[in-house]
Structures are given as structure tokens and as C-alpha cells.
Amino acid sequence: MENGYQEKVILVTGGSGLVGNGIKYAVENGEQRKGEKWIYATSKDGDLTDLESTRAMFAMFQPTHVIHLAAKVGGLFGNLKANLEFLRKNIIINDNVLRTAHENNVQHVVSCLSTCIFPDKTTYPINETMVHNGPPHDSNYGYSYAKRMIDIMNRGYNQEHGRNYTSVIPTNVFGPEDNFNLEEGHVLPGLIHKVYQAKKEGKPLTVWGTGKPLRQFIYSRDLGRLIVWVLREYKETEPIILSVGEEDETSIKEAAEKVAEAMDFKNGLIFDTTKSDGQYKKTADNAKLRRYLPDFKFTPIGEALKETCDWFVANYETARK
Amino acid sequence: MACTKKVILVTGGTGLVGQGIKSAAEQNPQPNEEFIFLSSKDADLTSREATKSIFEKHRPTHVIHLAAKVGGLYGNMRANLQFFRINMSINDNVLSVSQEYGVKKVVSCLSTCIFPDKTSYPIDETMIHNGAPHTSNYGYSYAKRMIDVLNKGYNQQHGTNYTAVVPTNVFGPHDNFNLEEGHVMPGLIHKVYKCKENNTPLTVWGTGSARRQFIYSLDLGRLFLWVLREYQETEPIILSVGEEDEISIKTAAELVAKGFDYEGEFVYDTTRSDGQYKKTASNSKLRKYLPEFKFTPIDEAIRATCQWFSEHYKEARV
Predict the structure, then answer these.
(1) Is B140 tagged catalytic?
(2) What is the pLDDT of residues A164-202, one digit of tens each?
(3) 3-class DSSP state for residue A229?
């Protein structure tokens, strides 16, 4: 039962992370509607690996909608060592959240997948129908399979109970409140942190690889707006990729140059070509998104990086690194 | 070490496959092996506490994990979510409790029905995750596939030897002979039994030309014991007769008729679907390990099963 005057309570699990903060920013800067109460839960509010704790959280917050972002995540090396834990913990978290949502008659849950869960051997561009078409990359198969099973459960809840449980697939997200740790973090926060350090030390920035590989980056605040749209309007069970298009892929070199510009870094870039580039392109297709939202405007990447760098510099002491 | 006592817990031990293992173990006992065949009455494996209690009680050194929520085509189609969640829960409980209790070897049971729907034939062990399974039972299929993923995780993280087998169509005593829910061979057996009793012709659904690989539960039992004792890989192993021993549904029906000395007429209801013509699974991995393994000749196996059914009709699952 949804009408403009009935209070909606939207629970965002994993609400204090990169994506959660992107949603929060979007909500607080134009997306909030009358009668909506947004709750950004963190691990302090409950242990989602524990069913009773999950139930207590739902009893306390009484959500009508859920955006499920909470997960055990980690960088390449974290995953490599502990695929079993990543698999089991995430399966338990996801099962607890979905079943408790169902028990509480929550009609709409939007979960968060990732392009890293797609089949390792695949054609490009990848699209939403391809998620299960082969095994994921071996380095993080535990995390990947657990995320894939969200899609399976969404299907099951929809078929058996008529629930609108669905998921989104962002490409590389960046923004304020990211994990800027050089070991565990992803490429853009890593570059930002490295430039910060290189600037302090008066050194040039060393970028691993040739800088040629292309990636689709999505600003967390744009992602936030899109996830809010998915929550309100998207009715499909099948996931939806949330990303800039192929035409907006950015090379690592270009990303590094924009970060340097944003941070007024003048010591120069060095490309260590002895290091691996990884894959040249991993293009994800955003045609489905464009069919729904042909006019959606992403924040230009230079601007988004400037905002992120400014945030990092201003919040260096407390930033996760 | 041959002298170390093995306590082998068999979950789902009272079913078709469990009883096949039981017969095989009785035929070829090893003095240091003690088998415990569990049923759902002994423990609700969807409860972690109950699973722990049963492990605490028996302190197994090895586990053969057969227990699952299973159902026919219609049961699955209606309830994929349940089949997924209940089986995920059972499998996670059995494997995690096994690891907690220091069980070094767990042999779980997959199924050829979990393979990708769109695939080339023959299918082999490397192909399990290469695409989505058939939509009718995706819940069951993904839960079974996750056993293989968990096995890999446990072995990498804990140095265990958790693995799985993939049988093709199993048949034998103690099967589910229910005509709605059961599989093709027990279905034929039940039908011929009734046709003989009522002196009516046998209706076989389809043209009878579809071909299948059948494995007798006693042979499967013998192979399970070999896997338990000798097979060290994490990757699953298909347990089946070879392609050369595929038989048509028509041949299967004829052998069942012989098994009951039924001489009535066969009617082929060609308005019914044949299903897939062939679904050949490759048994070359098994043959690399056991080139000399002799399967029970199919006519003998079918006859023995028909005899069992006649003798146990009252208690059989019909």
C-alpha cells in the first residue's frame, strides 16, 4: 500500500559506507519525498549474520522498504585468502535480510551486486542476462557466488510470494567516504591517496601499468540518485546495471591526470610498465538503464573527482585508510 | 591407515542411494569401518543445533551427505525458493559442523539435473557452473552447485578433502515409486506391476526412443565407497555407465516387463513429450580411475528391483 501520505520507512543496511553515503547525499539534496523516513543502519545497529539480531533490527525500525548494501567486502588479497568466509558470511547476511524483510511484509528490497561477479570468461559488453553464464574469477569466487545467490533468491521470493525483490549492478564506484586504504581499496581512491602522499613527500606519482586500460566509473552520488529511482520505480526482478555508457569509459592515465589536477599536484606522473595492466576493457552495457532513463545526467568525471579529492583532503584524519 | 577406526555418518541414509551404500558395505565390509545411516527422524539438518547434536552423539570421522529436500518436476516448479533455502541450510550445516568436528572427508551427492540447461554433450565434471540450470528446478540446482563451491572453500581454507559425486539416473530398491513424483525407472516398475495385476496394457509416455544412462543403486553404492576410501580430488566425479550403455525408454520398459514376466501389450502415448533425446554424461574420469569396474548388467539389476518391489509393495513408497 503506497500513497504519498503514508509513511515509508526505508532501511539502508550498510548505510555508512561509500554507496550508503551516496544515497544519503542524494536523499538530502533533492531526492527526499514527503512521508519518507530514511534510516542508515550500520553494524552497530545489528549483526546481520545473526538472525535474531536482524529480526530485532527490523522490529526496531519497522521498514516498509529496504536497500540492502551490507556485506563482507575486501580487496583482492583479502578475498584470495578467505573465499570460504566471504561465501558463507555473505550468504548468511543476504538470507537473513531477505527472509526477515519477507517476514515483515516488506514488499520492495533493492540489493547491491557488482560487476566483479560476472563470468570470468565472457564476451563484452556484459549485460544483466549474463550474470550466471559461467564461473566468476577464481580470486573472489566466494564473494561472487554469494552475491549471485541474491539474484536467485530474488527470483524465488518473487515467484513464490509476489515480492518485488531486485538488485542493481554498479560498475566502479568512487566518492567521499570510500575506503582509501592502498592495500584494500579500489583504483580511484588508491590514486587519490597516492597523490596526496606524493604531494606531501614532494615526489612524482607512480601509476602501476601503462595507464591505458579503460574503466567505467560511477560517482557515488549519481549512484545514490539511481538507487533511489530503482527503489521507487523499477519493477523487474532481473538486476539492472547502473553505470555511465561505453562512450564515457576513462583510461587510468586520464583518471590519474584528473586527480592530479584536482589536487593541484605538479610533481609529474610515472608509469611503471613492469606492473600488470589487468584487463584492457571490461565494458558493461548500460542500455537497459538508458531505456528507462534516457535523460539521466551523470556528474562529469572531472567534477566528481574534484569533489572527492576535496573531501579527502578536508577529512584526511578520519577517512578510512 | 587401514587400522584406524572410521565412523561414517550417512545423512539421508534410508533413501535409494543410502540403501545402495548399505548393501554395498554389507557385501564388502572393512573391519575398521562403522556405518551409521541417518534419517530425518534422527535429526533435522536444517537446524544447526540439531546437526551439532547428532555429530556430538556419533563423532563421525567421515560423512556421506545424501540428505536433501527433493521432489519431482511439479514439486520443484511450485517451490524453487524453498528448495533453494532448505537445501542451502542443510548443506551449510552439514559441511560447517563436519569441519568443526574435524571430519576430514565429506562426500556429497549432486545430480546431472543441475548442469547448465544450454550445453553441449557429453557433459563432464568441468561444466557444472558453465551456465544457468533449467528453470523448472533452479532452486534445487543452485543449492547443489553451492556444495561444490563450499567444498572448494573448505579445502582451500582448512585442508579438508570435501568432494562430491554426480550420478546419472539411479534406480533400485527403496526408491520412490510414486507415479507423480518418481523418476522414469521406478515409474515404469510401478506401472508394469499394476498392469500385470489388472491385466491391462502398459502405456509408455512418449515414443520410447529417448535414451538415458541408468545406474543401479548397488553399483552406485560400491562406487560411493570407493570415492570415500580413495578419491582425493575436490572436483566432483560423475558416476555412471558409459555412453555405450545408454538404453532407450522402450528397452527399459521391455526389461521391466521381463522383470515381472509381464506379457501385455505396450502402447506408446506419443502425445506426451519425450523430454530430451539424449543427455549423455561422460564417465571417462571414472574410467581413468577404475577401468575394470563392472556394472551389474541392466537386465539383472532391473529384474532384482522388480522382485524387491513385488516383495515389498506394502512398505514401498508409492
Answers:
(1) yes
(2) 999 999 999 999 999 999 877 788 999 999 999 999 999
(3) helix
A-B C-beta contacts closer than 8 Å? 67
Q: What is the pLDDT of residues B174-205, one digit of tens each?
A: 999 998 777 899 999 999 999 999 999 999 98
Q: Looking at beta carbons, which residues of chain B come within 8 Å of A145?
A: 146, 149
Q: Tell me, what DSSP letter sits at residue A90?
A: H
Under the banding of pLDDT at 50, 70 and 90, the label for residue A281 is confident
Q: What is the pLDDT of residue A74?
A: 75
Q: Which amino acid is at B187?
A: G
DSSP class of A117: G
- Provide the pLDDT for residue B20: 98
Measured in whole angstroms, the distance separating CA B242 from the mean position of its chain's CA atoms is 17
pLDDT at B279: 87
DSSP chain B: -TTS-EEEEEETTTSHHHHHHHHHHHHS--TTEEEEE--TTT--TTSHHHHHHHHHHH--SEEEE-------HHHHHH-HHHHHHHHHHHHHHHHHHHHHTT--EEEEE--GGGS-SS--SSB-GGGTTSS---GGGHHHHHHHHHHHHHHHHHHHHH--EEEEEEE-EEE-TT-B--TTTS-HHHHHHHHHHHHHHHT-PEEEES-S--EE-EEEHHHHHHHHHHHHHH---SS-EEE---GGG-EEHHHHHHHHHHHHT----EEEETTS----S--PBP-HHHHHH-TT--PPPHHHHHHHHHHHHHHTTTTSB-
Q: Under 8 Å CB-to-CB from A143, ≥6 apart: which residues? A: A71, A72, A73, A74, A79, A83, A86, A87, A90, A116, A117
* B130 chain-A contacts, CB cut-off 8 A: 133-135
Cβ of B85 within 8 Å of Cβ of A145? The answer is: no
Q: A68 CB contacts (<8 Å, ≥6 apart)?
A: A13, A14, A94, A97, A98, A109, A110, A111, A112
User: Residue A5 above 60 pLDDT?
Assistant: no
* B142 with A149: Cβ contact below 8 A: yes
Catalytic residue among B138, B140, B162, B262: B140
Q: What pLDDT score was predicted for residue A77?
A: 64
Among the partner-chain residues A83, A152, A156, the one whose CB lies closest to the CB of B156 is A83
**Mutation to test the A interface, candidates B99, B137, B142, B235, most A Cβ within 10 Å:** B142
In tens, the pLDDT along B297-307 reads: 999 999 999 99
- Judge whether A273 and A212 are in contact, CB under 8 Å: no
Distance CA A45, CA A49 (A): 12
Q: Catalytic residues of A, which ones?
A: 143
CA atoms within a 13 Å half-sphere pointing along the CA-CB vector of B123: 28
Tens digit of each residue's pLDDT (9 = 90 or more) over A236-262: 999 999 999 999 999 999 999 999 999
pLDDT at B116: 96
Measured CA to CA, the distance from residue B101 to residue B94 in angstroms comes to: 10
Mean pLDDT confidence for A56-83: 88
Residue B52 phi/psi, 5-degree rounding, is: -60, -40
Prior bond to B236 cis, omega within 30?
Answer: no
Return the closest-CA partner of residue A92 out of B89, B298, B185, B102.
Answer: B89
Picking from A8-17, B65-74, B214-223, which range would have the lowest pLDDT averaged per residue?
B65-74
Residue A81: what residue type?
Answer: K
